[in-house]
Amino acid sequence: MRSTHDTSYKTTCSYCGVGCGIVIRKDRKNNLVLEGNPDHPVNKGMLCSKGMNLHYAMQDMSDRLLFPEMRWSRNHPLQRVSWSDAMKRAAAVFSAMIKTYGPDSVGFYVSGQCLTEEYYVANKLVKGFLGTNNIDTNSRLCMSSAVAGYAQMLGEDAVPVAYEDIELSDCFLIAGANPAWCHPILFRRIEAHKQKNPEVKLIVVDPRRTQTCALADLHLQINPGTDIYLYNAIVRVLIENGEVDYNFVRGHTEQFEQYRDSVFQHTVEEAAEKCDVSIHDIQLAASYIAAAKGFLTLWAMGLNQSAIGVKKNHALISLNLVTGHIGKPGSGPFSLTGQPNAMGGREVGGLATMLAAHRSLANAQHREEVAKFWGVDSISSRPGYTATQMIEALERGELKALWIICTNPLVSWPDARRAEAALANAKFVVVQDISRRSDTLQFADLILPAAGHFEKEGTMTNSERRITHLDKIVDPPGEALPDAEILCRFAKAMGFKGFDYTSVEEIYAEHCRLTKGTNIDISGLSYARLRAEGSMQWPVPEATHSGTTRLFADHAFYTPSRKAKFYPIDAENLSAVPTPELPLILTTGRIRDQWHTMTKTGKVNRLRQHIDKPFLEIHPDDAAARNIGEDDVVVIRNEQGDVRVRARISAEIKRGVVFLPMHWGRMLMKDAARANNLTTMLVDPVSKEPDFKFSRVEVELY
Ligand code: SF4
After folding, report:
1. Nearest alpha carbon to residue 68 among 428, 449, 402
2. Which of 130, 349, 438, 608 is the most exposed place for a label (fewest CB within 10 A)?
3. Residue 514 CA to ligand 1 centre (angstroms)
4. Across 589-596, average pLDDT
5. How many Å apart are CA 295 and CA 309, to the nearest integer?
6. In angstroms, rounded to a whole number, what is the distance separating the alpha carbons of residues 549 and 160?
């Protein structure tokens, strides 16, 4: 919201899903001065290193794309063209592809960094007007297992809790996440709460002893892929000790017996051995949870990016259900979104398997409702290609034209060399981005310069369902345009009606109307309210409603029976099993001061001070067995490819496991350090989220 002072603006951080509020002022020379918004309920003025330095990344214009560029074939150089010519060419190619090969020959790949209004227009354009559901997002790579877990167990992709539950909880279980580095402001709130209340317990589950573990009362350093054995064993102890909330389980859940039978398939001793943790520590974790009045489970990619990611979500959410810790203060399951607007994208149906306002693509009535609303005859019932299915469809030549917005799949897709070959096979690639540093540009037949953060208006939804309005603060450079405007221009060039918006506020209002009557109803939350009253958590169904802090306070879930549903859970991991030739397990992840593929954070000197080079973290015993010393150059290899970086020897990682940061791509390091050279196309069978956290590898001296 714009403040009363005409050079002061309100926005949010464009990095992680914590969604910290930011105030920007312009000094006399028109430079941007940035600080945390003291009135924003999420961060109360605090910012982490990435957020504090966001304005440096956004004011550095050295790499910005300034005008559309086009080439007639891959043998021709890219040449500057007008917006009008760019749109005509895009429309001509997409029309020809659809006419010749059908609507499923084209697709869009978008991003959890897009604003909700941009996501909405893209989804309407593709599903409503191009006639295909081939629009997926990079949220597929991070949150889709949590989406499926919530939807199956609670009846809706709905995070039940709020950040204010942190201060009301007395036991936290953080699994497969390192919020001290990746969600720092959220973690600072946990830290401050624990400092004030030393009896508060923190359990961390992670094969690495990360910065988050420094605060933990108990670190369960499990073998990768064994999470379900651990959570099931904790539940078994709770059941055997009579610590289950049977009033809640009998009154508000179903299928508990089947779930309990699956939990009893393994003894606590077997689980301890599988996980490589002690029986005592499993019992201790159970005792902390049993004693808690408020119990929060928090998780991120360590659970989601797995061949059994949805089952891991089932297992963790079950911990909240058996103890009745959901829908009450300080309690509930809380997935941490990695991107600033992963949640907003889900709201508008920005996944290949969803429809707007969390409607289901598989539901004929839902398709009809949305088609009628958009004024089109019908919406295809065929699910679109998910991210990895896009790679396969490109390889087969079935997906011919791909439009990529605000994401850099050449670095972030799994099995990167295979993904690269697949992109090279496309007939036509559009890259809509802000930066020349995107590796994916090398495959672009058409480059469209987009406006960046601060350069456009819109909304984002953070991890706790909180919608915040973002002011436009500065004009975009050159001929760059907001993503929503680019998409509307393309739609009009295609001859489609329904894209004559005069402002992004109109797009937002249309999206709000489409949510009316759904579980994510925000028909009562206008731009005027967001500007005047600040951010709010959905649902906000009336103009007098002030938002919903916590879901399921009445224990009525969104399933048809209104009961939460347990699932029997098979604990076995489905990842490729290590062999004598490839005996180590590679896990990939983030470092504190970098973001995704570094097209923004990589430009900021201050952020490079923390860690400026890629590295392989390896246990001293594994290093010694291979004659590897600190800072030696090593090669990590497997069936997919190889990576060459320096070794960082650390007893903080589990023996048999190695860690590579995910940030460095081809443009920065040729492709020597691209972690996804080593990951595979294996995905969770339900969520289609890749198994980024478990690849078998061998490491040797270079
Ligand atoms: Fe930005 Fe996340 Fe840091 Fe907040 S915690 S400032 S949202 S990166």
Report:
1. 449
2. 608
3. 30
4. 92
5. 22
6. 8
pLDDT tens digits for 6-45?
Answer: 578 999 999 999 999 999 999 888 889 999 999 999 999 9
Split at pLDDT 50, 70, 90, the class of 75 is: confident
Alpha carbon distances (Å) from 28 to 25, 31, 54: 10, 7, 20
**DSSP per-residue letters across 198-267:** TT-EEEEE-SB--GGGGG-SEEE-PPTT-HHHHHHHHHHHHHHTT---HHHHHHHEE-HHHHHHHHTTS-
Q: What DSSP designation does 272 have? A: H
Minimum-distance ligand 1 atom for the alpha carbon of 13: 1
For residue 198, give the nearest of 217, 211, 225 by alpha carbon: 217
Contact 687, 147 (CB under 8 A): yes
Count of other CB atoms within 10 angstroms of residue 246: 11
Mutation test residue for ligand 1: of 11, 12, 14, 16, the one with most atoms within 8 Å of CB: 16
Do the Cβ atoms of 270 and 236 come closer than 8 Å?
no
* Residue bearing tokens 């690269």: 420
Question: What whole-number percentage of the chain has pLDDT above 70?
Answer: 99
| Antiparallel, parallel or unpaired: β 466-470 and 458-461 | antiparallel
Residue from 42, 185, 336, 591 to probe ligand 1 pocket by mutation (most atoms less than 8 Å from CB): 185
Mutate to test the pocket of ligand 1, among 43, 55, 343 (most ligand atoms within 8 A of CB): 43
Q: 90 C-alpha to center of ligand 1: Å? A: 36
Q: β-pairing, 218-220 with 253-254? A: unpaired
Asked if 324 and 249 touch (Cβ cutoff 8 Å), the reply is: yes
Separation of CA 165 and ligand 1 centre (Å): 19
Q: How far apart are CA 468 and CA 558, in angstroms?
A: 25
Kindly state the average pLDDT of the residues 103-117.
97
Distance from residue 104's CA to the centre of ligand 1 (Å): 37
The overall longest dimension of the chain from CA atoms, in Å, is 72
Question: Which residue is associated with the tokens 């953060």?
Answer: 453
| Element housing 497 (H / E) | none
Measured in whole angstroms, how far is the alpha carbon of residue 255 from the centre of its chain? 30
Asked whether the ipTM of the predicted complex exceeds the cut of 0.90, the reply is yes
- How far apart CA 327 and CA 110 sit, in angstroms, is 33
**Closest ligand 1 atom to the C-alpha of 16?**
2
Please choose, from the candidates 129, 234, 241, the residue with its C-alpha nearest in 3D space to the C-alpha of residue 173.
234
Q: Name the residue type at position 563.
A: K
Nearest to 695 by CA among 671, 647, 664, 662: 662
Instruction: Please tell me the distance from the alpha carbon of residue 477 to that of residue 225, in angstroms, as a whole number.
Output: 46
| Residue 1 pLDDT > 60 | no
Tell the residue nearest (CA) to atom 6 of ligand 1. 51
3-state secondary structure of 321: helix
Coil vs helix vs strand at 483: helix
Residue 685: CA atoms inside 13 Å, Cβ hemisphere, count? 4
Distance CA 309, CA 315 (A): 10
Q: What mean pLDDT is reported for the chain?
A: 96
Neighbours of 318 (CB within 10 A): 29
Residues with C-beta less than 6 Å from any ligand 1 atom: 13, 15-16, 18-20, 43, 47-48, 50-51, 183-185
Look up residue 464 and give its two tokens.
């706790």
Q: Which atom of ligand 1 is nearest to the CA of 595?
A: 8
> Which atom in ligand 1 lies closest to the alpha carbon of residue 46?
6
Separation of alpha carbons 378 and 101, rounded Å: 19
Question: Quick one: which atom of ligand 1 is closest to the CA of 43?
Answer: 4
Domains of the chain in start order, with CATH, are 8-59 (3.30.200.210), 69-140+340-518 (3.40.50.740), 144-339 (3.40.228.10), 584-701 (2.40.40.20)
The SS3 call for residue 461 is strand
Q: How far is the CA of 301 from the centre of ligand 1 (A)?
A: 17
* pLDDT recorded at residue 666: 73
